[in-house]
Request: fold
Amino acid sequence: MVSPADIRIPAELLPSDGRFGVGPSVVRQEAVDALAAVARTYMGTSHRQAGVRDMVGRLRQGLIDLFSLPDGWEIVLGNGGTTVFWDAATFGLIDERSQHLSFGEFSAKFAKAAAAAPHLAGVEVIEAEPGSAPSPKPSDVDVDALTHNETSTGVATELRRPDGVSAEEGLVAVDATSAAGGLRWEPAEVDCYYFAPQKCFGSDGGLWIAACSPAAIERIERRAASDRWRPASIDLGIALENSRRNQTYNTPALATIFLAVHQIDWFNANGGIEWSAGRSDRSASAIYGWTEASEYATPFVTDPALRSSVVATIDLDDRYPADDVMAACAANGIRDIGGYRKLGRNQLRVSMFPGVDPDDIVALTACLDHVVAALSS
Ligand SMILES: *Cc1c(COP(=O)(O)O)cnc(C)c1O
Reply:
C-alpha cells in the first residue's frame, strides 16, 4: 500500500488556500497585508490613544451594523477569549441558576464552569447525544445558556427564546464563537451573543466580544453593583465601562483587533450577514452535496436541519482511516481537517467559515476523492 505522505495531489486540484481548521482558522492575506501597511503607525502604539481606540470603536460599530442590532444594544469586549468569558459570566451575568443545553465539548464546558462556581446555586443541564441538539425545558433559571454552533460536532441550532421566557425573567446567553458572522440570528431571541474572533472573523485568539441587549446590560450593571466578590480582570461591569470608552481593562492584542475589523468591514462592504452567511451556505451545499454522491463519506449529523453550514463533520468509511487521509492531505498543504478526537470516530471536520472560499471547498472534495483513490490502489 502507498504511504499516505507519498501521495501527490495534482496541482490543478488543490485549493487556493489549504487552511480548513475550525479555529484558529483562515486569516485572509488581504488583512495581513493591510496590517503590515499600517504597522508603523498602529502596532506598538498605546491602546489608550486615539489610533487604537478608533479601531476598537470601528469593531464595536461594525458589529452593530453587521448584526443590525436594535437601539440600546452594546458591544462589550475584554481579554481572554470565550473560555474566559464563561468565567466572567459566572460572576457577572448569572444571578443564581442557569440552564445549559449541552451537546458537545464547548457547551459542556460552560455548564461545568457554572456548576463549579461556589457562589452560584447550581445548574440545570439538558444533554443530547453528540450530533444532535437538546431542547430547553421550562424553568425558573435566570440565564439560559445556548450554543449557536457546536464546533466539536458540527451541529447548528436555530436561536429561539425558550417558550414563555421573557428577558425580564431569564437572559438568553449564546455561545456564538464559531457561528458569529457565518450564521443568521434574530436579536429579539437573544440577550447576550458572545464569541471570539479567531473563527468566522478571521482574526487571532485572545479576545472575547459580547453583543448585549438592554436586559443583559441591566443585568451586568446590577451584578456589578452587588457585593459578590469577583476578580477585576473578569468583572463584566469593569469591561462594560472600558468598552464604552473603546478600551479594554488591560492591554489587548492590537493585531487581533485590527484583523477582526478588517473582516467585519469586508463583510459589511459586500452586503453584511446575508453575504457572509451566504458564502458559508455555498460551501455547505458543496460539501453535503458531495457526500450524497460519495461512496465513502457521509455527514455525521443525520438531521439535515441541524447540519452546520460553518463546520462540517464528515464520517469516512472504515476502509479509509481519517489519520491516513489527513496525513496525505497535510503532505499536500491541506491542513487541520481532523475531527474532534473525543468523539472517537473515523471523521474529518472542515471549516466553512465565510473566509473560506466556497470554490476551495469544492476543490477539497476533489482532493479527498483523489487521496481515497490513491489509498485504495
Ligand atoms: C472555539 C470555541 C470556544 C473556545 O474559544 P476560546 O476563545 O479558545 O476560549 C468556545 N465555544 C465554541 C462554540 C467554540 O467554537
